[in-house]
Each structure stands twice: as structure tokens, then as C-alpha cells.
Amino acid sequence: MTTAAFAPPFIEPGELPAALREQGYAVLSPQGVSEWLGVPLAQLEALHADWNDLPPDEYLKDGGRYRTRRHACFTVDGESIAQVPHRAHWQPVEYNALHGGMQRWFAPMHEATVAQPVWQRLLQRLGEAASGMRGTKAQPWFVEAHQFRIDTAGGIGRPTPEGAHRDGVDLVAVALVGRSGVKGGETRVFEANGRRGERFTMTEPWTLLLLDDARVIHESTPIQPLEEGTAGWRDTLVVTCRAQGFQGD
Fold first, then answer.
1. Is 125 helix (H, G, I), strand (E, B) or coil?
2. Can you tell me the distance from the alpha carbon of 124 to that of 52, in angstroms, rounded to the nearest whole number?
3. How confident is the model at residue 101, as a pLDDT?
4. Is 168 left (phi over 0), alpha (psi -120 to 50) or beta?
5. Beta carbons within 10 angstroms of residue 85's beta carbon
6. Dihedral of alpha carbons 109, 113, 119, 120, sign
7. Which residue in 113, 117, 61 sits closest to 237, CA to CA?
8. With pLDDT > 70 as the criterion, what percentage of the chain qualifies?
9. pLDDT of 163-191, one tens digit each?
10. DSSP character for 181?
């Protein structure tokens, strides 16, 4: 039995502020992301090579070896973007029951990547989206970026082993960077204090989901290889914006 794959509910870039305010999430198509950033999609695609060089995540409590990743932290204040000294990723157990309460030191993102104008532009626009979502003028945002590859070398890969969750931040952005040879990986978004939810599968590189973390919870379902005995992977970029400091400070 196969599960129907629902297409993402794409909106136009100009509808993004209203969608975040009204329903707590929004999805941009790759072409919409290009328009929103004001850069050719090829500049984003050029970042994808990094995902072939992600070290293993050594902290998975389920014993899995299906996740590799890099991590970096920034402050974003309008057009001012600064990378902060490399630091541990930390979440309280209230937001991550599986891996919360522990300092996790991941390999840093490549310097050449964070220096790319398209990377700087992406962080700037996410900061603007976070400010608009909260109805404030430009303010400092404490930003964490995570490059993930989930593979099926062990038969199954779990994009969100902690299950449906919130991240304890203001804005969460999840970009599909690419996927190959896998099935599954359905994205699910639910009201944190209600019944309404939506499910869809991101398949096009640089599809972008933005979430108001105070209002919705989210998860991605496990992935499996399309054909038994073959390897596959799903690459994502997750960027979070939080007011008033990094978690763990």
C-alpha cells in the first residue's frame, strides 16, 4: 500500500507576511525563493556541494548512523550579519525530549559557504521575516543554521527522531536542498493549540517552509530507499531565528 504524496501549498512571496501572521506557516516554491531573495536559483544550487562533506552526528540517542550535519551561529540585525564564535547547540528537554539538555558540538559550516553573498542574503531575509512575523521593526536575531543529510544506508533514516516538536525559537525555516533514491520524508505541520494540520512532501530543491514556532509544531516522516539494497538521501537546511539570545545562554 502506498501513501499519496501531497504537493506543498505554495504561496507567492508577497503573501508570506500575511500567511505567517494568519496561519503560522508558509511554503515558497524554488522559484518563489529565488524571487524572494532576488538572486538566481543557481546561486543557491551552488551551495549543495557542501552536503557531500558533512561529518556524522555522534549524538543520536536511538543508536542510528543515518544523520550527518554541520552547524553555525550568527547574529542578524537588519543588513548587519555576523558569525559568532563556534558554539554548542543546546535545547531544553521541553522542546527536544530525545536530545534536549545536552551540549552538542557539531562541526562548523565551511567558511567559504558563510561568506557567499547568497548565504548572507538568505539570513538577512529570514531576519526580516522574523521581525515582520512578530510585528516589530528590525531587531537583532540570534540565528542557528544546520546542514543535514539523512541517508538510508541502514534501511531507514529519520529526519526528526524526536518526533513532532517545536524548537523553542521564533522562526524556523526548513529548506529542502535535495533528495535522491528515497520515498517518505513527508512534512507535517500542526497547530500547537488546535486540531488543524497539513501534510505535504517537498521534492523540488530549495522549496522553503517557514514556521512560527510559537504557534505550530512540525515533523518529517522517516525515509526509506526507493529500491531495496540501494542507498538514498535527503538533504535539508534548517535555520532558526530567536530573539534575546541563543538557547543555553
1. helix
2. 26
3. 56
4. left
5. 6
6. positive
7. 113
8. 94
9. 888 899 999 999 999 999 999 999 999 99
10. S
Transcribe the chain into DSSP letters: --PPPPPP-EE-GGGHHHHHHHHSEEEE-HHHHHHHHTS-HHHHHGGGGGGGGPPB-TT-TT----EEEEEEEEEEETTEEEEPPP--B---TTT-TTTTTS-B--PBPPHHHHTSHHHHHHHHHHHHHHHHHTT-SS--EEEEEEEEEEE-TTS-B-S-TT-SB--SSSEEEEEEEEEESEEE-EEEEEETTSS-EEEEE--STTEEEEEETTTEEEEE--EEESSTT---EEEEEEEEEETTS-TT-
Query: Directed axis angle between helix 30-37 and helix 117-133, to 10°?
Result: 90
Amino acid at 112: A
- Grid cell listed for 137: 521593526
pLDDT tens per residue across span 110-133: 999 999 999 999 999 999 999 999
Q: What is the pLDDT of residue 97?
A: 53
Measured distance CA(155)–CA(170) in Å, rounded: 34
The CATH homologous superfamily of the domain defined by 10-57+86-242: q2cbj1_9rhob like domain (2.60.120.620)
> Does the structure show a pLDDT above 60 at 138?
yes
Domain ranges of the chain: 10-57+86-242
Angle between helices 117-133 and 16-23 (to 10 degrees): 50
Average pLDDT on 55-84 reads 91
Please, are residues 234 and 177 in contact by the beta-carbon 8 Å criterion?
no
- The dihedral formed by the CA atoms of 131, 144, 6 and 232, expressed in degrees to the nearest 10: 160
**Is 242:203 a contact under the CB 8 Å cutoff?**
no
